[in-house]
Design goal:
The protein is mostly helical. Helix content is about 80%, strand content about 0%. It has 1 helix and no strands. The radius of gyration is 24 Å and the shape is rod-shaped. The protein starts with a helix and ends in an 11-residue tail after the last helix.
């Protein structure tokens, strides 16, 4: 019975050692996604203000 619990403990330790890396990758993913979105938003706004087509506000 002790061997079963020790096995579960070892499996949990190996899984928990991976979680900080997954969390760090998630932070990078969201940070890069937000940065790309903000850059596109600013570019689109500047383009529309200079007389470009505002395709996001066209009525269907």
């Amino acid at each position: 019975m002790t061997a079963i619990f020790n096995g579960i403990a070892k499996a949990s330790e190996s899984i928990f050692s991976i979680l900080p890396h997954i969390g760090n990758l998630t932070n990078w993913f969201f940070g890069i996604s937000i940065t790309i979105g903000v850059i596109y938003w600013l570019w689109y706004d500047a383009n529309v203000r200079r007389g470009g087509v505002n395709y996001m506000s066209k009525k269907g």
